[in-house]
Every structure is written in structure tokens, then in C-alpha cells.
Amino acid sequence: xxxxxxxxxxxxxxxxxxxxxxxxxxxxxxxxxxxxxxxxxxxxxxxxxxxxxxxxxxxxxxxxxxxxxxxxxxxxxxxxxxxxxxxxxxxxxxxxxxxxxxxxxxxxxxxxxxxxxxxxxxxxxxxxxxxxxxxxxxxxxxxxxxxxxxxxxxxxxxxxxxxxxxxxxxxxxxxxxxxxxxxxxxxxxxxxxxxxxxxxxxxxxxxxxxxxxxxxxxxxxxxxxxxxxxxxxxxxxxxxx
Length: 241
Ligand SMILES: Nc1nc2c(ncn2[C@@H]2O[C@H](COP(=O)(O)OP(=O)(O)OP(=O)(O)O)[C@@H](O)[C@H]2O)c(=O)[nH]1
Ligand SMILES: [Mg+2]
Known about the structure:
By secondary structure, the chain is of the alpha/beta class. 41% of the residues lie in helices and 17% in strands. The chain has a seven-stranded parallel β-sheet with strand order 3-2-4-1-5-6-7, with helices on both faces.
């Protein structure tokens, strides 16, 4: 059980040491472990729920402004007639992104994490209850724009997609490797802007594969639609397998 699992660390070791231990540090590490293990447990519950309802959940992560919501708007326009879709939006503040998604006609719910820098499995569990998902739907979860924290919080998704736009610079995978290592798919977005930048897509791809050579890469422009069909075909094919 989730709760039992994270209790045991509360009532163990009573140190009788010489005082050389940094207790504050130890406590911080324990609490972090607790948060992560209870999150993991709830993530597995979400995963079980998604499995049972044949829901394909996709966690989309990136730094702020790389184009997650624009990619979703474009993807939804292409797929909404053939697959039931729902969206969970995560941001610290505002309902801007959920409002944008609602305009496409699919159900969307906004989570505001306030000072939180990532979504957690418990938030998804609650949002899913409110959304009332149809069986066999595609559930997009847009995480809080942040290339660091969301990497360690499993939400119970089937695949994690990391978006990186060409404007961010080709060294980002090397600087923030954990996010790229935790994902299965990488979307390189805003390729329409590449001609105006010094940023090199070939080098960006090399760096992406250097940190995770399993990543499946899509090069797209959510602005002019380049590469969108390939990405949508991938989702359709994955869905039917
Ligand atoms: N030129 C160009 N602009 C894009 C592209 N995709 C998104 N944008 C623009 O980039 C800006 C940010 O896009 P969003 O979709 O809001 O990005 P986001 O990742 O959802 O942002 P947060 O949710 O705040 O992290 C907007 O002005 C978009 O119009 C693209 O492929 N090409
Ligand atoms: Mg967004």
C-alpha cells in the first residue's frame, strides 16, 4: 500500500553517534525519499487505471515556452476526429493553457502548482477523476515548464516526451541530461526558426543522442506544421499496437 510504504522510514534508526552526523541533511534526504516513493506508488496506481481503461497517457516536459501547448493544439486538430482526447495542463499560475486547449473542443483541466515546479502523481489522480476520461482515449499531460524537477516525478504515463526548441541552444541536452534520459521521445520544435539562428540542429541531435541514444526524435514546427504528420502518425500507430 502506498501509505504503509512511506511510513517505515519515520520510525527507524535512533542514532547514538558521536555527533559527527549532519542530522538536518539526513532528514532532508529522508523526506525527499518519502516524497519520491509515495509519488512512485501513486504513479503505479495511475498506470494501472490507465491500463484498465486502455488510456494512452503522455507526459510532455520541456523548459518554459518551447511550444508544448502549441504542439498540443496542432496535434489535437489532427487527431480529435479519430481518437478521444483529453488534456491535463500544469502551470504555476493561470488557466491560459487549459483555455487554449478548450478552444479545440476537447476536455481540458488546469492544475496550478503555485510554488511547485512539477506535477505529481496525486495531482493527476485527482484531475483524472474530474475529467471523467473515456475508455481508449489519448491523455496528454503538459507538465510545468521546467527542465529539471519533472524528470524525477513519474505520473504513471506510458511515454514521456521531452520538447526542446531550436532557440534554446544545442547544448541543452548536455546541461540537463536527466530530463532527456527519463524520456522515450524527443520533439525538436521551432525548426522554422533554424535559418535565423546559429544553433545547429545536427549538433542538437548529436547531443540528444549522446545523453540517451534510445530517444526517438521528431523534428517539427508547430507554427507551420512541418513534421506534424509524422508525429501524429507515430501516435496513431502506437495507439493501435
Ligand atoms: N516560430 C515558432 N514559434 C513557435 C513554435 N511553436 C511555438 N511557438 C511559439 O512559442 C511561444 C511559446 O509557445 P507555447 O506553446 O505557449 O509554449 P509552452 O511550452 O506551452 O510554454 P509554457 O507552458 O509556458 O512552458 C508562442 O509564442 C508560440 O507561438 C514553432 O514551431 N515555431
Ligand atoms: Mg504551455
